[in-house]
Structures are given as C-alpha cells and as structure tokens.
Write a structure and sequence with these properties.
single chain, about 0% strand, mainly alpha
Amino acid sequence: LYDAEYRGPARPWIDPVKEINAEIAAVNNKLKSRSQSVRDKGGVPSMVAAQIKQDEELFGPLVPAMKTKV
C-alpha cells in the first residue's frame, strides 16, 4: 500500500512498429523491465503473465521472440 504508484492512461501509439521495437530493445538491454513495459501500456504484469501461461498451455509456445539490433 505504501509503495503505490500512479500511472496515467496509456498513450496512443503513433508508429506501432517502431514503438514495439523500442520496447523490445529497452527490455533486451535491461533499460526497463518487462513488468514496467506492461504497465506502460496500461496492463497488470501478473495478469499478463497468467494469460501468457494459459495461452501457451492451450495453444503451445509462440515462435521465438523477435530480437532487435541496437
């Protein structure tokens, strides 16, 4: 409760391809956590992780994650 953090509404995407590549690069280069990336898009990290786990159980794993060059 004392570590509460306010986050305003997620901002709309202007160039989705560039923005998602920037997110991937930031996470891969440890400039931001995956949880922070999820929160920045208006999600709840624990819920997203649970949904991903459920999706993989139902549909199998996705193709390997895209890597970006930085």
